[in-house]
Write a structure and sequence with these properties.
The chain is about 40% helix and about 15% strand. The chain has about 500 residues and is of the alpha/beta class. α5 crosses α6, α6 runs parallel beside α7 and α11 crosses α12. Its EC number is 3.2.1.39.
Length: about 500
């Protein structure tokens, strides 16, 4: 092939690769958690595109959600699919139950949908102290049975098992990472799990939350929670720690070393910072923490004891307004993105890339339900109306220190009424609070405030548009086939 023809060939090759979409739109290498506890979830295909646009090529699901898994098919995104804690006992009790779960939720999606499932997460923080040993006895046998089921399905090498654990499974009596060891009450169980994972070349997954350390302890040095903080460093022998994430992670490494598993691979299954629901959960802190976290991931920075960085699954991708708030009101606000995939705050993803918002989101009409100007807060039905609204809708942004925590009583009522109205899809009867409310087309969100009166996603419009997805996918497949054929023809002409 002559130089001229070689140049034309390389040009055609570049055009061909671009036509197939091989060039990533974002920075490749991020991982995230995709929770689905929302009253108005984004359509799964929009979420998958959101991940691809922002360089997320790994995702952890907390359960085998059918819509999410189908949307992840042939996406190029690696998947960790979770087993909820309430399924641990039945799976532990029978290997046949484990085989049925793997067949339905792993083999099925790999073979029929082309989902790149790499891990099965058996349980979610099952040894958490607040569970009071409820799942301690069933976790290990469930892990064994799922591994046996994967081997039976011919997936023993392709799909690995793991158990996402909270960082409270280890501790340090001295407060220094080098003294790390596993909690005495679960030490033997942890050794069973770690030995089993090691035998099957599977990683240990741990969830680390600097936010929770800060939120739970008024004496916790705030700056130590961040990566560029000015808190006094913690000196541990020859190692100096400047942030709690490194110190926490290395406490686990020390615990593994102490028990003979110093080279055990580790995944950080969850780490992030919420934006609402408590005084420490705000946009400024979340942006500061997550920017530092993303910077570390981009630079490939590990901890002092493990310089090679682990896979880090950011928690979470999008907000979930239907999630349990037992741990705190902040639970519904962990997303890097808002519930609708819009950007909460800017993040630099490296290589000149910034966050990209979700595309193609359809909303309910621009109207809100608010407290009527004629209504009075002394009305005998006022308290009952507020209670009804916040029982069935998310009012966590009204909690003290939150984005809407400074509203007056009438503002609180308007916010609560609107959240109920939007959650109920703006039904005509959803803005009838004993003659206390009215519908307005003027956005009631306070000016110069982080408080936002939401309008929900229109699920009906997305349902109707979903039927168009299959023909579009078929057309795209045809275009790719024609592109391949044309490329082969053109290539033959220049060789």
């Amino acid at each position: 092939m002559g130089l001229h023809n070689l140049t034309r060939f390389l040009f055609l090759l570049a055009v061909y690769i671009v036509s197939l979409g091989f060039f990533p739109k974002g920075v490749v290498g991020f991982a995230c958690n995709w929770g689905t506890r929302s009253t108005h979830p984004l359509p799964p295909h929009i979420v998958v595109q959101l991940m691809k646009d922002n360089g997320f090529n790994k995702v952890k699901l907390f359960e085998a959600d059918a819509g999410a898994l189908k949307a992840l098919g042939n996406s190029g995104i690696q998947v960790m699919v979770g087993i909820p804690n309430d399924l641990l006992a039945p799976i532990a009790s029978s290997v046949n139950n484990a085989v049925a779960w793997v067949t339905q939720n792993v083999s099925n999606y790999i073979s029929k949908n082309g989902v790149d499932i790499r891990y099965v997460a058996v349980g979610n923080e099952p040894f958490l102290k607040t569970y009071d040993n409820k799942f301690v006895q069933s976790t290990y046998p469930a892990l064994e049975n799922i591994q046996a089921a994967l081997i039976k399905a011919g997936l023993g090498r392709q799909v690995k098992v793991t158990v996402p654990l909270n960082a409270d499974v280890y501790q340090s009596d001295s407060g220094l990472p080098s003294a790390g060891d596993f909690r005495p009450d679960i030490h033997d169980k942890m050794m069973e799990i770690i030995k089993f994972l090691n035998q099957n070349n599977a990683p240990l997954t741990i969830n680390i939350y600097p936010f929770l350390s800060l939120d739970a302890d008024p004496n916790f040095p705030k700056e130590y929670a961040f990566f560029n903080g000015s808190a006094p460093p913690v000196v541990d022998g020859s190692i100096t720690y400047t942030n709690v994430l490194d110190a926490n992670f290395d406490t686990l490494v020390s615990a593994l070393e102490k028990n003979g598993y110093g080279s055990m691979p580790i995944i950080i299954g969850e780490v992030g910072w919420p934006t609402d629901g408590s005084s420490s959960a705000n946009i400024q802190n979340a942006q500061r923490f997550n920017q530092g976290l993303f910077d570390r991931i981009v630079k490939g920075q590990g901890s002092p004891k493990r310089p090679t960085p682990p896979d880090i699954y950011v928690f979470g991708l999008i907000d979930e307004d239907f999630k349990s708030i037992d741990p705190g009101n902040f639970e519904r606000h962990w997303g890097v993105f808002n519930f609708d995939g819009s950007i909460k705050y800017p993040l630099n993803l490296g290589r000149g890339k910034s966050l990209v918002a979700a595309k193609g989101v359809k909303y309910l009409p621009r109207q809100w339900c608010v407290m009527s100007p004629q209504a009075s807060t002394s009305d005998p039905n006022f308290a009952e109306s507020m209670s009804k609204a916040c029982t069935y809708a998310d009012c966590t942004s009204l909690s003290p220190g939150s984005s809407c925590g400074n509203l007056d009583t009438r503002g609180n009522a308007s916010y609560a009424f609107n959240m109920y109205y939007q959650t109920m899809d703006q039904r005509n009867d959803a803005c009838q609070f004993n003659n206390l409310s009215m519908i307005t087309k003027i956005d009631p969100s306070p000016l110069q405030s982080a408080c936002k009166f939401e309008i929900m996603i229109d699920l009906g419009k997305h349902d109707r548009s979903t039927s168009l997805a299959a023909p579009i996918m078929e057309r795209n497949s045809l275009v790719m086939l024609v592109s391949s054929f044309m490329f082969i023809i053109l290539l033959s002409l220049w060789i």
